Amino acid sequence: MLSRTADHLFWMSRYIERAENLARLLDVTWQMSLVPQPVETINQSWNAIIALNSLEETYSAKYSEVNGENVLKFMVSDADNFASIHSCLRMARENAHAVRGTLTTEMWETLNSTWLEAREKTFDQLFNAGIGDYFEWVKMRSSLSRGTTLGTLLQDDAYHFIRLGTLLERADNTARILDVKYHVLRPTGDEGATDFYEWGALLRSVSAFEVYRKVYRDVITPERVAELLIFNQDMPRSLQFCLNSVIKILELIANSNSGETQRQAGMLHAQLRYGRIEDILDHGLHEWLSDFMDRIYLLGNGISKDFLVPMEEAA
Amino acid sequence: MDFYNEMIDANGGVRPHYKGYEDWLKATPPERIARKRAEADLAFHRVGITFAVYGEEAGKERLIPFDIIPRVIPAPEWKSLRSGLRQRVKALNMFLHDVYHDQEILKAGKIPAEQVLKNAQFRPEMMGVDLPGQVYAHIAGVDIVRAGAGEFYVLEDNLRVPSGVSYMLEDRKMMMRLFPELFAKHKVAPVQHYPDMLLEKLRAVAPKGVSNPTVVVLTPGAYNSAYFEHTFLAQQMGVELVEGRDLFVKDEVVYMQTTQGPQRVDVIYRRLDDDYMDPLAFRADSSLGVPGILKAYQAGNVTLSNAIGTGVADDKSIYPYVPDMIRFYLGEEPILNNVPTYMCRKPDELKYVLDHLAELVVKEVHGAGGYGMLVGPASTKEQIEHFRQLLIAKPDGYIAQPTLALSNCPTFVEEGIAPRHLDLRPFVLSSGKCVDMVPGGLTRVALTKGSLVVNSSQGGGTKDTWVLED
How far apart are CA A100 and CA A115, in angstroms? Predict the structure, then answer.
């Protein structure tokens, strides 16, 4: 298929997935901030969201203070913030518009009406109506978008590039959520009850609370949470699940230039397939996750170079 | 002014070919009609059959109003129209081939040479370039109006990138969906095979030696006013919709960038004006085109549809000579009428035009889309004076024609059903000796009372066009 078409499809699905994961991250942070704890701790976790997206400069140009409401406003509906949910939904729609002939009517209408609805509401309206409801809405729209894709689109290259975008974005986002929360949560030590709620909220943010119960049938510990999100091969938002699917798709779309990208993906996949959580924790989870995110970034670049914006010299 | 009404004859009776529709309209409860009209609006919006309007807020998209009263053409009228269109488009293509080769028609003195050779639309780059089947305008949109007692006139020949065919197809789809019972009662000639016919024609004009050509549609991009149509046609033909940046030229061969590497492109149905096609040959500031594509084209390695340089045949200053072209190339008398045209570059005709501005329609020679024209009888004194100045300043930039009493047809408007003026744009497809079209075309209707301008950019709407089979 046309490289530019593939590029738009890839980014369309990345942006909608990014909007969903951002909603998940903001939701869990918001919920955690409602559990009684020192103000500094709460603001630290809001700050982490800004830092995670390297948005310190853009943020401080607009807001003097880091607090829940400001960060939510900035990350939910600020049109000037290219990383806000608002911007992600707009970009998803714009990419879809550019290739609407390739999408099914249902897919196009889902993304188009999501954007039309999103731009209707001001932040204050969303906040007063309950920001949690808004996060739910974003998650449902993203699910609807995936559902119409699965239910209506011919499973040819278009489908593969859409899936590839979703999975790469999700792998990156799950790693980010784990990184930022693990970092904040770990030092709090043995305050049993708070820990339970906080880890519980983190699991819920990736729809993994019930999964955890099913898999471990035991109390929630940070190590197992990390293990679940990284290594579980059956949970749709775990890193291993994402990479399992990525390497399969790469085999389907492979071309004469993509050997190196496939090799990189294979190496990353092998780490997840044969790694152990103990080794990662010994080595330092934060370091490991940072390295993982870097490699996902390089993988995205490789895919872009091989398939989406190929050089003319290849002719 | 008296107008020819498509549905009602001079004595107030319903014309025979509208009888069936009229009976149905009388028997159908108004609530049902209202509901169906609302349904049509909703469906057009949801599918996003919109067009962008230049000069309005950036990215603004508007719906083209759709009217549920069809424009009905009886079989004998269509047969004569069809012969006339075949004849005309054939002659226009022969003219283009001639102008870019031996220029016999100029040597014969039928058209003043400087009118052609000094025309801004004449492309010297095309001299001596041989095209498959000697066809230049593979797709022609010929605008036809009915005036006076019902005779047809050609208003203009659109040979560059005529648009609107998607509305023709969507209008039919909508009518069949809303009122299937009407189609059970009438023998309406089908039009839905247009994309098939187009693809067949495009494949037929592939470069020599290419047996299974790759055809693409080239669009200026998502912000073009006709982007919906570009998407639609590519999808219906099952070919790629590309932008200039998806294509590149290497060794005078055109390729598109695909996820499996470069793929050769043989036929480009381009919806982009000549000026923007190749920054190396035409406008250097164009980022919409493909550098080097003209060279590939001249080398015969790719077919552009329509060809570069067709504008020299549909220019309004050439229009008055089309009947002579038909006589010259085909040795036949023209079947379709031309509208009498005053060429303002001729001093005596300019004088006549200036003296009769309030009665005439004045058009820019290179204008299109209903922009930059004056409809004398419908204009204010200021507008007329404004045009007088324009004419005096640049007489060769304009032509003028008598204001035609365009036919009208009953149409749903706010106050109920009222007559509104309309035209017809059949889409004529050519490859080699074969000239084809689907029956009918796009009917455009001016929704403003009394208005004679039907362009969608000027608030016009559309109607389904029925050619009734015998």
Answer: 15
Q: Which residues from chain A sit within 8 angstroms of residue B234, using beta carbons? A: 101
Complex-level ipTM: 0.76
Q: In what order do the strands lie in the sheet with B215-218?
A: B240-242, B215-218, B267-270, B303-305
Placement of tokens 């906080």 in the chain: A198
Cβ-based burial of B223 (10 A; exposed 0-12, middle 13-18, buried ≥19): exposed
Per-residue buried b or exposed e for B74-100, using 16+ beta carbons within 10 Å of the residue's own CB: beebbeebbebbbbbbbbbbbbbbbbb
Give ∠ CA B299-B303-B306 in degrees, rounded to 5: 125
A-chain CB neighbours of B49 within 8 Å are none
A and B: number of Cβ contacts within 8 A:
59
Closest by CA to B225, choosing from B456, B51, B45, B49, is: B51
Between CA B306 and CA B160 the distance in angstroms is: 6
| pLDDT, one tens digit for every residue, chain A (315 residues) | 999 999 999 999 999 999 999 999 999 888 888 877 888 888 888 988 898 888 999 999 999 999 999 999 999 999 999 999 999 999 999 999 888 888 998 899 899 999 989 988 899 999 999 999 999 999 999 999 999 999 999 999 999 999 999 999 999 999 998 988 776 665 544 555 566 777 888 898 898 988 999 999 888 888 899 999 999 999 999 999 999 999 999 999 999 999 999 999 999 999 999 999 999 998 889 899 999 999 999 999 999 999 998 655 443
Distance of residue B409 Cα from the nearest chain A Cα, in angstroms: 34
Q: Measured between CB atoms, which of A4, A109, A314 is closest to B246?
A: A4
Task: State the DSSP H helix or E strand holding residue B268, giving kind and residue range, or none if neither.
Answer: strand B267-270
Q: What is the pTM of this model?
A: 0.83
The CA distances from residue B19 to A222, A223, B185, in Å, are 80, 81, 11
A3-33 vs A105-118: helix crossing angle, rounded to 10: 40
Q: How far is CA B44 from the centre of its chain?
A: 22
What tokens does B124 get?
């010297």
Q: Do A101 and B255 touch (CB under 8 A)?
A: no
A 77-106 residues inside an 8 A Cβ radius of B: 97-98, 100-101, 105
Looking at the complex, does the CB of residue B268 fall below 8 Å from at least one CB of chain A? Answer: no
Q: Which of A1, A4, A258 to mutate to test binding with chain B, by most B CBs within 10 Å of its CB? A: A4
- Omega of the bond leading into B306 within 30 degrees of 0 (cis): yes
Q: Which of A100, A272, A219 is nearest to B221 (CA)?
A: A100
Closest CA to A235 of A177, A174, A145, A288: A174
A115 contact B CB<8A:
no
Q: Is B254 helix (H, G, I), strand (E, B) or coil?
A: strand
**The residue to which tokens 């008296």 are assigned:** B2
Interface contact A255-B261, CB threshold 8 A: yes
Point out the residue among B48, B243, B255 whose CB comes nearest to the CB of A315: B255
Task: Count the neighbouring beta carbons within 10 Å of the beta carbon of residue A41.
Answer: 14
- The 10 Å Cβ neighbour count of residue B246 is 20
CB contact under 8 A, A101 and B257: no
Q: How many whole angstroms separate alpha carbon B146 and alpha carbon B148? A: 7
Interface residue A108 vs chain B (CB under 8 A): yes
Give CA A73 to chain center in angstroms: 19
